[in-house]
Design goal:
By secondary structure, the protein is α/β, with parallel strands linked by helices. The protein is built from twelve helices and twelve strands. It is globular, with a radius of gyration of 18 Å. The structure holds zinc ion (ZN).
Length: about 325
């Protein structure tokens, strides 16, 4: 019989306590999809570079990575399985089902628009309980691999939640009630976080299984506090992104939150979802850049420098993910 709480990795369910240090939102492979219309840097299909990048995260002390590419938006099941199998016993990888922001779907003819809500719930449940579609629901043929998704993603837009995104949220909540799967939200530049969390809570999702991403792009500590009072998790996933804000502002905001007792609701990640955000991919073009390991080699020392204790860092990197990423089958309706 299965434990009540487990984490669903690509290679099977594990005891949450064996996850070690967790990067809660990242990318190793991104294959095509609508992001490529925004920038070619979103194309990342080199399994050797991805493996090297993952190894550098392990060398820096990491163990588990949540790769947040949903079907139709860059997810590449075969390449990710190749990496997961290569790192079996060394790293835990979690893959996602679900959606991204509405901009990435045709408002008239995408399956997200035209397929009835409960039928999409069944598609999501199948990815979580039976196995992911190797074609990532790019259709028209569905062929499942015996490897399951361990989290569901939804997206929202800048300052608005689109009707298609409301549909995503209803589907995610229903999928949660059937499976116990954790839910992560892409917020656009950190907006609508409070609203999206409130919507999921109103649909009966446990706050411990709700993770809001990209709030670091809206560096408003009072806004963070208002959101954390709902009981949900915030994943601060963007050190090394000076084009938005310096690391010091993020570190000081995290310190401010920890001082107010929110250390149990904060998660950390790099979200290095572009070619030149990763050291190993950059090196294939002769370029030098920081990568995923930066989270542990540079950002954690800065957290200590601003006065965050090792116990707080352990909560954010090790203990909190055990709660946020666990399936709680006792919550199934
Ligand atoms: Zn991402």
């Amino acid at each position: 019989m299965k434990n009540n709480k487990f984490v669903r990795t690509v290679l099977g369910d594990i005891d949450p306590q064996t996850m070690g240090i967790v990067d809660c939102h990242d990318h190793l492979i991104k294959n095509g999809g609508p992001e490529m219309q925004e920038h070619i840097d979103f194309l990342m299909i080199d399994t050797l570079a991805a493996s090297e990048e993952l190894q550098s995260f392990l060398d820096a002390g990491g163990k588990t990575m949540v790769t947040m590419d949903p079907p139709n938006v860059g997810r590449d099941v075969p390449r990710m399985l190749e990496i997961a199998k290569k790192f079996a016993g060394k790293a835990h990888l979690i893959m996602t089902t679900g959606f991204h922001k509405a901009k990435f779907y045709d408002k008239y003819s995408s399956w997200l628009k035209t397929v009835e809500e409960d039928k999409i719930v069944a598609m999501m449940v199948a990815e979580i309980e039976e196995g992911m579609d190797v074609h990532s629901y790019n259709g028209p043929v569905i062929e499942r691999v015996p490897h399951q998704a361990g989290i569901i993603k939804c997206g929202t837009s800048y300052g608005v939640i689109d009707p298609l995104e409301l549909k995503e949220l209803r589907i995610a909540a229903k999928t949660y009630h059937q499976t116990g799967v954790p839910i992560l939200i892409h917020t656009q530049l950190g907006t609508m976080g409070y609203e999206v969390a409130s919507i999921l809570l109103s649909q009966g999702v446990d706050p411990h299984n709700i993770i809001l991403s990209h709030l670091n792009k809206n560096p408003d500590k009072y806004y963070y506090e208002k959101i954390l009072q709902l009981g949900v998790f915030i994943a601060f996933d963007g050190p090394d992104r000076v084009k938005y804000y310096p690391d010091s502002l993020l570190a000081e905001n995290i310190k401010w939150l920890c001082d107010r007792g929110y250390q149990h609701q904060i998660l950390l990640a790099m979200d290095a979802g572009r070619f030149y955000y990763q050291t190993a991919y950059s090196a294939t073009k002769g370029t030098v850049s920081n990568g995923i390991a930066y989270l542990l080699t540079n950002f954690v020392p800065l957290l200590k420098q601003v006065g965050i204790t090792q116990a707080m860092i352990d909560d954010m990197l090790i203990n909190n993910p055990q709660v946020a990423l666990s399936f709680d089958v006792t919550k199934r309706k």
